[in-house]
Design brief:
Layout: H1 2-18, E1 35-39, E2 42-46, E3 50-51, H2 54-60, E4 63-64, E5 82-86, E6 94-96, E7 115-123, H3 135-143, E8 147-157, E9 160-163
Parallel strand pairs: 1-6, 3-4, 5-7
Antiparallel strand pairs: 1-2, 2-9, 3-8, 5-6, 7-8
Length: about 170
Amino acid sequence: MVRVLLVSTLVLAFLSACASAVFDVGRTETVLPLSRAWIDGRVVEYVTTDVSDLAMATMMGVNHVPRLAEAARAPPGRSLLERVYKFPNEEQISIFQSAPSPVGAENKDRSYSPLWRVVLVRWANPGLARELKSEESLLAAEQNRELSLEITEIVVNCPVTRVRGGQGIRGVR
């Protein structure tokens, strides 16, 4: 009984130390570049923190997390990944499949995930490229053979932080 109480006390002490809200080593913020993407005709803002591909992680200056690629191999119906449509020639900003609605703790969009499988978008005739603002318009352009989609094994962690013109996540200090 004494041993159980001792172990319980140690576990509680450890957990309370890990959950401490006050941890200050002189800096209270991390600054990440803000990016923008389209979702259903609206612009959302997001940050990128982790990428499964070394070259992309190096180029973006974020964490290289090879293990994220394992998420791309999840069985159908069990994936946590959404698709991010990336234009490698930078004709336009990316297109996301979903976004939290609203952004923050009140999110009601159960399909949203900050983990994205990269799908590369290439125009068949770059001279006829136009800005697409939704997955629906992108898939229609693919069906019309205006562009091709290449599903990659690259997985990125890009949480949406704000819908343009709306309130974003604030965090806690």
